[in-house]
Design brief:
By secondary structure, the chain is an alpha+beta fold. The protein contains five helices and six strands; from the N terminus they run ββαββββαααα. It is rod-shaped.
Length: 152
């Protein structure tokens, strides 16, 4: 690998120039990490590890691949996000769903009252009452609600 390359898989530094890897996308570190560096205590070869998705900023080296795909550090993070998504509702989503339930309840109540009053009391023909009821149902549905839910 050479400076400017994106590291394609989790790998271990074998030989070459001292390198610097930008791991900001994975770890949030603002400064590049030197490779090879001193190993963490009790964890051999951690000083030679380079993560998939990092950018080799400086140096040229040979490395051996240790993990690919979903088994890489970034792959595990993506898998964890995918597993967690959609299982729990956030506070905002819960409030929106509650508001939608209230709107649906009010709509059903108003349509039933309208239907009873127009058809039973005023004796309006059934097709006209159904048309008014349908218009009211369509008008009461918030058009932007699905878009708001997707954006947030």
């Amino acid at each position: 690998m050479r400076g400017g390359d994106i590291i394609p898989a989790d790998c271990y530094y074998l030989s070459g120039d001292p390198c610097q890897c930008d791991e900001a996308a994975l770890t949030g570190e603002s400064l590049p990490v030197k490779v090879p560096r001193k190993d963490e205590s009790g964890k051999p070869y951690t000083g030679r590890q380079m993560w998939s998705g990092s950018i080799l900023k400086v140096g040229e080296c040979e490395a051996v691949v240790s993990h690919t795909g979903v088994n890489t550090m970034i792959g595990e993070a993506a898998k964890a996000i995918q597993d967690a998504s959609g299982k729990e509702l956030g506070v905002f989503e819960g409030k929106i769903i509650d508001a939608a339930k209230v709107l649906i309840g009010i709509t059903v109540l108003v349509v039933l009252v309208l239907f009873y009053y127009m058809y039973m009391v005023q004796k309006v023909p059934l097709p006209e009452v159904l048309e008014m009821s349908l218009s009211l149902v369509i008008a009461s549905v918030p058009v932007a609600l699905p878009m708001v839910m997707k954006v947030t």
